[in-house]
Inverse folding.
C-alpha cells in the first residue's frame, strides 16, 4: 500500500527537525548575552514589540508562528466476505467461496499551530537575559557565538584599516589630500552600515 503523501511529509519533517531541540534553542539564545542590541536587531530584524522598563532597560519581543494541517488522507481496508450455500436443480451441490471489497477510510484533519515567543532584555544597549515560551522554540545547537561588543569594535577597526590600505593603493597619481578624502568617504560608508541597526531601534522606540 502506498504511503499517503501527507504522512510522508510529516515523517520527513520530523526527521529534519530531529536535531533541533529546546536545549539547542536555549544554547543559541545564550550566545546573545553580552551582544550589542544593534547586532541583535541586525540579525533578527525589528522586534514585534518593545516594552520600556525605564532605568531597568527594555524587553524586545519576537513572535514566530505557523500553522499546518495533518490528516485528511484516505486509505483502503480490505474486507473479506465468506459465502456458502446449496445449488438445487439437475445437480445438487454445495458451494463455498470468498469475495473481497475495499472500504475507504478518511482520517480527520487536524489543524496544528506552532508558536515561539522570545523575549530579550536589553540594558545599556546590551543583551542581558532572555526568556522563551511556546511549542516551536527549537533550534540546533549553535557552532558560533553571536558577536560581542569587543568583536564588533574589532571588526570596525579592521574595516577602517582595510579602507586606509585601499585608498593608499590608489595613490599613484593622487595627492595626500585625495587619499585622506578617500579614507573619509570609505569610513562614512562603513559608519552608515553600522548605524542602520541603531536607527531601526530609535524608530521603534519613538513609534515612527
Amino acid at each position: 500500500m502506498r504511503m499517503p503523501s501527507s504522512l510522508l511529509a510529516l515523517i520527513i519533517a520530523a526527521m529534519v527537525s530531529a536535531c533541533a531541540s529546546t536545549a539547542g534553542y536555549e544554547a543559541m539564545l545564550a550566545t546573545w548575552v553580552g551582544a550589542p542590541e544593534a547586532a541583535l536587531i541586525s540579525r533578527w530584524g525589528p522586534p514585534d514589540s518593545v516594552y520600556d522598563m525605564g532605568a531597568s532597560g527594555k524587553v524586545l519581543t519576537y513572535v514566530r508562528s505557523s500553522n499546518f494541517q495533518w490528516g485528511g488522507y484516505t486509505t483502503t481496508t480490505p474486507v473479506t466476505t465468506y459465502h456458502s450455500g446449496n445449488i438445487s436443480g439437475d445437480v445438487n451441490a454445495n458451494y463455498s467461496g470468498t469475495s473481497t471489497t475495499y472500504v475507504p477510510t478518511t482520517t480527520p484533519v487536524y489543524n496544528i499551530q506552532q508558536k515561539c515567543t522570545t523575549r530579550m532584555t536589553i540594558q545599556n544597549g546590551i543583551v542581558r537575559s532572555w526568556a522563551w515560551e511556546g511549542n516551536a522554540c527549537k533550534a540546533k545547537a549553535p557552532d558560533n557565538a553571536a558577536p560581542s561588543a569587543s568583536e564588533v569594535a574589532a571588526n570596525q577597526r579592521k574595516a577602517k584599516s582595510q579602507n586606509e590600505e585601499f585608498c593608499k593603493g590608489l595613490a599613484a597619481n593622487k595627492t595626500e589630500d585625495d587619499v585622506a578624502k578617500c579614507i573619509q568617504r570609505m569610513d562614512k560608508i562603513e559608519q552608515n552600515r553600522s548605524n542602520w541597526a541603531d536607527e531601526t531601534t530609535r524608530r521603534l522606540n519613538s513609534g515612527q
Remarks:
- Confidence is low (pLDDT under 50) at residues 5-9, 203-208.
